[in-house]
């Protein structure tokens, strides 16, 4: 390792400096900006996360601005980015930094880990990029580059694998420019050593990459198979009243979309027809509170919303009523509520010409 580390890191950094994308968070070492970008890019591609980063920086130039914003406003601005617990943790951490730390982020890995929503990867990224500390990042891109270059078959989602790759990355990191090294290896994995059809023939490491030499590129990295995807069936009741109002409910239980808004929901074990819907106890309880004039199914073919470990097979039932549901929401104001992208897409499509 002592011999290979300088070769690997220097070659990688030279490649990065010549090929890196011009991204706004690479033109600063401001820990607020670095933290914001790293939280947003978890489980998210750069092209998807970039517009959100720019929106947040514009709306909340300083951590104090984010801290003082209402949670619903933050969730609304986050809408469409997914994994909403990141947004709630983001808001909680902003409050903590603003109120308990006088707006100053911790300047070391150990204390950064104490922030809500900040794990090993994010703490390492901030510590190295903002404070020039030699803390190696390990994400999916890094796992892929290292497993292929060194021919490591230890599963990356095992405890042993996580420990092994973290130690290896720590040995390889350039102590003089750790932030640059971390960004370089992530960039290389994201753009060159990609999951499918990597650019091996023109790779800067193809003369020393074990996976390429041994024709194991498609076999690495190794990942233990996860649990099968769970199929869920969502039936949303979209109320349309005579006074152009509808009903929204806020999700408060544990699970997906905590604190986001949605239409009244009935979950079933399979797709159902209107007669089956009307026989459900939840629907009967619901119908006792509202004078239903007509029920129609908006989408015969379910919208399949794919999450990491579950697929939501979703259908929207249009419920017309003669009642003036004054305790509900004006249809003209519905888009101001923070809601899952699944609901937001329906709202945009259905109410566009309503």
From TrEMBL:
GO biological process: base-excision repair; mismatch repair
Coiled coil start-end: none
Cofactor: [4Fe-4S] cluster
NCBIfam families, per database record: mutY (TIGR01084)
Annotated source species: Aequorivita aquimaris
Protein name per the record: Adenine DNA glycosylase
UniProt family annotation: Belongs to the Nth/MutY family.
Catalytically driven reaction(s): Hydrolyzes free adenine bases from 7,8-dihydro-8-oxoguanine:adenine mismatched double-stranded DNA, leaving an apurinic site
Annotated keywords: 4Fe-4S, DNA damage, DNA repair, Glycosidase, Hydrolase, Iron, Iron-sulfur, Metal-binding
GO MF annotations in UniProt: 4 iron, 4 sulfur cluster binding; 8-oxo-7,8-dihydroguanine DNA N-glycosylase activity; adenine/guanine mispair binding; metal ion binding; oxidized purine DNA binding; purine-specific mismatch base pair DNA N-glycosylase activity
Cofactor binding: number and manner: Binds 1 [4Fe-4S] cluster.
EC number: 3.2.2.31
Annotated HhH-GPD domain residues: 40-191
Function: Adenine glycosylase active on G-A mispairs. MutY also corrects error-prone DNA synthesis past GO lesions which are due to the oxidatively damaged form of guanine: 7,8-dihydro-8-oxoguanine (8-oxo-dGTP).
């Amino acid at each position: 390792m002592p011999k290979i580390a300088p070769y690997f890191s220097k070659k990688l950094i030279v490649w990065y400096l010549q090929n890196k994308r011009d991204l706004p968070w690479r033109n600063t070492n401001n820990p607020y900006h670095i933290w914001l970008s790293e939280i947003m890019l978890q489980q998210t591609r750069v092209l998807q996360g970039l517009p959100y980063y720019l929106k947040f920086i514009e709306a909340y130039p300083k951590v104090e601005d984010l801290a003082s914003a209402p949670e619903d406003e933050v969730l609304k601005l986050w809408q469409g980015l997914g994994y909403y617990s990141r947004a709630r943790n983001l808001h909680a951490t902003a409050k903590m930094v603003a109120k308990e730390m006088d707006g100053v982020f911790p300047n070391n890995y150990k204390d950064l880990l104490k922030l809500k929503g900040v794990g090993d990867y994010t703490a390492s990224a901030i510590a190295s990029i903002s404070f020039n500390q030699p803390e190696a990042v390990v994400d999916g891109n890094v796992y892929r580059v290292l497993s292929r270059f060194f021919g490591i078959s230890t599963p990356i989602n095992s405890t042993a694998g996580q420990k092994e790759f973290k130690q290896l990355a720590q040995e390889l990191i350039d102590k003089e420019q750790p932030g640059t090294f971390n960004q370089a290896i992530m960039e290389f994995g994201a753009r060159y050593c990609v999951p499918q059809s990597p650019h091996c023939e023109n790779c800067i490491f193809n003369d020393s990459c074990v996976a390429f030499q041994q024709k194991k590129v498609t076999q690495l990295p190794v990942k233990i198979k996860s649990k099968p995807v769970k199929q869920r069936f969502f039936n949303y009741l979209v109320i349309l009243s005579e006074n152009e109002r509808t009903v929204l409910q806020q999700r408060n239980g544990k699970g997906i979309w905590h604190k986001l808004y949605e239409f009244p929901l009935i979950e079933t074990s399979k797709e159902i027809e209107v007669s089956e819907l009307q026989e459900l106890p939840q629907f009967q309880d619901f119908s006792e509170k509202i004078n239903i004039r007509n029920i129609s199914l908006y989408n015969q073919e379910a919208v399949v919303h794919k999450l990491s470990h579950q697929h939501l097979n979703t259908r929207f039932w249009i419920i017309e009523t003669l009642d003036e549901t004054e305790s509900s929401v004006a249809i003209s104001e519905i888009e101001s509520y923070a809601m899952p992208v699944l609901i937001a897409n329906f709202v945009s499509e259905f109410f566009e010409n309503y």
